[in-house]
């Protein structure tokens, strides 16, 4: 680690610790504001909400997806702002807060349980959160680990363990709930970082329109595997339509179809997260800590602008990174070897490994050429970097003292292919690689620290939710345990959640951050959204309707994830173990069924079930409804 | 269209900025609306929340 990096890290930690200490001794958490009868400054409230909502998952994971799929991902930013901020703050926030206080609910499962007077709903929703939220926490941890790996040039596994240790040290002793000023400080630093990132990216690429035009012009560089599923360039939406390609007999691979990408991008990535934000347990509880609707109104402006600068910038810069890597990247370095041959395995999909001297002709024929190099500031003991060699790659050898120069001429995803990946690359690595390569070293280090801080505030909320789900919501409800005992179980729950997240991060491999986040958000939306909205806005919805809706939404989504959606069903493998086929979509049906997200099926079913059961069951007791709505 | 080829992407780009502008305008217009006094149930809720926080951080 060079001196500059050490100075930046120590300086950053000292400032954060000082401000965190000041914030802790003076104003503490949102609850303290409420107890004191004071309002948090609207900017502080919005930024702390934003820091809890936005994390490494959004910037690293979804930014990487934008680099791969294109700027159409900005539809997600639109939903983040319009649904996640405007609708959530204006229409949901105040009601959630009022009803939560009237029912004395402190967690989301408790809110549902008390609103519908159902212990089953309370415990069931807590179990869903406890079992599935570690998937989302894993995505956030992995996003942080990818950045650590890129900045410090260590292996992703080591980075994952390092970051997991930091997270454990923070959340297990009790750093669970965001101190608002610290969260807001992280938000401000993120805001500055993202502002520098977007301005320097547009400036480097010749301005807004020139940058977009250069990205449009790269259309011919879309990888064949993406073009086959409907990628039409980074500044166009994928091809929309319902596939006429039919499902083959069981055992045959599912053929790609040019309409697949639209369904993956829109139903999984955009709708899953864009709508799912309304049913995020840890964000819903945050509304209860607000003093009044006025605080929410005031925070809407800051929140909207903040999210634009977070995901809007991440997705735009992610897509534009293709232009940088393809047209502008110059690596000044010491080349170690300009023709290292790496074997991608028989199907071309295994992790790359160097070929041995006595490799067979088959292996030699499929091997890919790489250049290995070290940056000028790296010691000779540092592991080498790998970059793929293609006909567009240019190499300039320096003389004895002058450095060598590589112009890789690759698009973003190809730039991430290395000795640690397959030939498919790693979308989760694109943003860290871009920041590391295109921006000055000091910026890369500060940006990484900021992202890690943002990840910590998100993780604090997530693990608090995971822990209380099992301690307060399940144990206390099922066994009527004393609160002291439930605190212990909460801590154990946090520990289990953390271990599960790390294990998932280790076994799920690359290209997983956005998908894991989208699965969790989609599952929450399909399971909880109709009951939550019904509970907030309708006096007519019944206990039976809420229970049926949550159960139907959850099990429909789970069924779709395990047996229909090809990406998850094949990845999990339960379908092939039970039924000896990749997915349960019958032969002759359109292959589009295999790329439709569970949310698109689960949420409508959940809504319909809630409506039908409400129609056929008696309204809830009037005195209870009066208590819920405060009349 | 700002150098963007597809209308769908152009529309998303504009809507992102437009929705952020809507949020800013809404925040400004409702700056003084929606103030509520703290009710007993709010205070009660906050005290219980604090208790459970303390249980976890101590």
Key structural traits:
heterodimer; A: 631 residues; mainly alpha; Sodium/glucose cotransporter; 2 domains; 25 helices; 65% helix; globular; B: 58 residues; 71% helix
- The total of helices of chain B stands at 2
User: What's the story with the biggest beta sheet of chain B?
Assistant: none
Q: Which series of helices and strands of chain B comes N to C?
A: HH
Please name the CATH topology of the largest domain in chain A.
Answer: Sodium/glucose cotransporter
User: What is the averaged pLDDT score of chain A?
Assistant: 89
**Residue-averaged pLDDT of chain B:** 87
Tally of distinct domains of chain A = 2
Radius of gyration of chain B: 22 Å
Taking the sheet with the most strands of chain A, its summary is: 6 strands, antiparallel
Task: Estimate the strand proportion of chain B.
Answer: under 5%
Known CATH architecture of the largest domain in chain A: Up-down Bundle
The gross shape of chain A turns out to be: globular
In the predicted model, the low-confidence regions of chain B spanning at least 5 consecutive residues are: none
Beginning-to-end CA distance, first to last residue of chain A: 63 Å
What is the molecular shape of chain B?
elongated
What oligomeric assembly is this protein in?
A: heterodimer
* Relative helix content of chain B: over 70%
The H-level CATH homologous superfamily of the largest domain in chain A, spelled out, is Sodium/glucose cotransporter
| Classification by helices and strands of chain A | mainly alpha
